[in-house]
Amino acid sequence: MMPAVGQAPASGIKITQITGLFEETLRLNASDLHLAADMPPMMRVKGQIQPLKDHVAYSSAEIEQLMDKVLTNRYKEVLKKRSSVDFAISIDNVGRFRVAAYYQRGSLSVVFRLLASGIPTFASLGLPESLSRLPYIRDGLVLVTGVTGSGKSTTLATVIHEINANLAQNIITIEDPIEYLHYNNKSIINQRELFSDVPSFSEALRDALRADPDVILVGEMRDLDTMRTAIMAAETGHLVFSTLHSRDCVSTINRLVGAFPAGEQSQIRQQLSSTLKAVVSQRLLPNVSNTGRLPGVEIMFSTPGISNLIRQGKDDMIYSAIETGCSQGMITLEQSLVKLVNDGKITVETALAAAKNTSLMKRRLSTGGEEDGECMLPQKKQWFNR
Question: Which residue, 121, 135, 146, 124, is CA-closest to 296?
Fold first, then answer.
């Protein structure tokens, strides 16, 4: 019988090398490995947290010992100073992991996220074909949003990979941490990691503007200074990609504008109306067989109409513009969920749980999406390819 979460068996196995835990992560096809004091190792499998079978709990000292060979001296300094550190590591014959280490109640806790080997394509990620235009936007600001663990970094890695493979550009990324490694191809690409190469996103972004960039990726717009500089970089002819923790396209615009003082918000709206080129909001959902996860997405591309709504502060009307913008490659989350249900990829229950408006979702599901117009009809296969 499995122990309850937070309880370990009185006796059992204990893996004493971190590589052994990584191998178990691969064996179970887990996306994440969690280590916390007085608990057995916890794995996220098919989106659900579960303990490693028959493994006893680690003490705080044992977790520190497991991490001793993982943390470089620099990361140890950051962890001591900030009580948290994020970085990525590559393990021979195992894979690459993103690591988040932090102290809670005086004990070290760690989360390892297994990163995909190689850089996936849009198709392999299950993303709409319309997103394949992102690498070819000339300039402006493109945001990929969603909660932690929704695949934002992977989507952006795919975009950068496409630019690197097909265009002659100077690409600079600023990441915390560097998750996917890129190598010079048709483009020049330089990847800078927070705390290892640069002290902050905002300072690294200002440095990047002096390095003749064509494309800049900012891992996350965490503070006002970074947001301000990113918008300015987009205004001055650069293509800037970044992420925000927001749940949909409209709330992304609201959050971005709301981060600025009230006296600046009108000016920021003016700037965003001309610089914001696309917003992609995504979340990962369990597939119908519960053997994996796939993305539900909301996509907004800037059109003259949407730009005007952003400028005038009529954010409540943007959703309708996305909903009717399928011919421009746009889609709302609800439309995306209906398609996934109609294609047999997710269950109705999953769609209802993920929807922003449950009653609207029920109505859409009952009509099969017919009320959304001809480009939404599943039998015409025109959801994403117009």
Answer: 146
Looking at the DSSP bridge assignments, the partners of residue 58 are 39
User: pLDDT (tens digit, 9 = 90+) per residue, 175-207?
Assistant: 988 989 999 999 999 999 988 898 889 999 999
Tell me what pLDDT residue 11 has: 56
**Rounded Cα distance, 378 and 40, in Å:** 46
Closest CA to 88 of 219, 201, 228: 219
Q: How many other CB atoms sit within 10 Å of the CB of residue 1? A: 4
Backbone φ, ψ for residue 59 (5° rounding): -85, 165
Q: What is the model's pLDDT at position 287?
A: 93
Residue 353 scores a pLDDT above 80: yes
CA 102 to chain centre: 20
CA distance 101 to 110: 4
Work out the mean pLDDT of the chain and round it to a whole number: 90
The pairing of beta strand 42-45 with beta strand 293-301: unpaired
Inform me whether the pLDDT recorded for 3 exceeds 70: no
Using DSSP, state whether 351 is helix, strand or coil. Answer: helix
Of 337, 338, 303, residue with least CA distance to 318: 303
In this prediction, residue 129 carries a pLDDT of 93
8 Å CB contact between 279 and 240: no
Least confident segment among 81-95, 237-251, 275-289, 324-338: 81-95
Strand partners, 42: 34, 51
Question: What tokens appear for 80 in the block?
Answer: 């001591």
For 143-212, the DSSP string reads EEE-STTSSHHHHHHHHHHHHHHH---EEEEEESS--S----SSSEEEEEEBTTTBS-HHHHHHHHHTS-
